[in-house]
Amino acid sequence: MKQIPILPMISIACSLVLSSCGDLSSTAFKSESGGIHTRSVSKSWSASKFSPISTISDRNGFHPGSVSESVAKKSKSFKKDKHGMPTYPDSVRSRIVRTTAYSHEENEVGAPWRKNAIGTYLKYGQVRSAAADWSRYPVGTKFKIKGLPHTYIVDDYGSALVGTNTIDIYHPNLSSMRRWGTRPAEISVIQWGDWDRTLNILAGRTKYPHTRKMYYAAKAKVSSGNVARN
């Protein structure tokens, strides 16, 4: 009887197990106090495989809604970030974004518990907190996610978000955070935040690399006049 090499079989089995577990990456972010923390985010969704017109759903059957065909088509004409997501001008309020999730229950060392980057408490009611790069979504920006009744407000940021169009959605517990995972969503910006307030806050935090990068990017954007002011 012909001998079957054991090592290749083990390698194939390991590959199958790893592929079924999904891709986990360590996402670093910095709290208001400046402490660096890491957490694992499930990359169950890939921008390269996403069909913008399809229904957004996960294995639990939860979905914010479907992405409009017109919004999907329009997104193709814009420059992409490192995650393959479009970078929109402020004049475009209906957009497709990559969303992730976070929770204060992750208990990162040095994290300000339920406090956000502006020093108030993270929200999870009819109005809910979100984190983003403030040079793209200034503090106080309000938006809706298609298919969900809540209003989201950008009152937080994270170092892993800087330089991307990703929006991190706050969840009050780990199970809710994990259900959300990483997914694309169609959002509508209903009110742009305050650029002056954004610059004032970030100006005092430029000793940290990620906040310094946001500050100068926001300052350049405001100086160019290419910002929306409600």
Q: What fraction of residues sit in β-strands?
A: 15-25%
How many E strands? 10
- Count of separate DSSP helical elements: 5
Estimated radius of gyration: 19 Å
User: How many discrete structural domains?
Assistant: 1
Q: Report the order of strands and helices.
A: HEEEEHEEEEEHEHH
CA-based shape: globular
Describe it:
The protein contains five helices and ten strands; from the N terminus they run αββββαβββββαβαα. By secondary structure, it is of the alpha+beta class. The chain has a single domain, classed as Barwin-like endoglucanases, CATH 2.40.40.10. A six-stranded mixed β-barrel has the order 5-9-6-8-7-10. A two-stranded antiparallel ribbon has the order 1-2. The termini are far apart. The N terminus is likely disordered.
Features:
single chain, 230 residues, alpha+beta, Barwin-like endoglucanases, six-stranded mixed beta barrel, 10 strands, disordered N terminus
Summary of the model, kept short:
By secondary structure, the protein is α+β, with helices and mostly antiparallel strands. It has helices at residues 6-21, 69-75, 174-180, 195-203, 209-224, and strands at residues 24-30, 36-42, 55-56, 65-66, 94-102, 127-131, 142-145, 151-156, 167-170, 183-191.
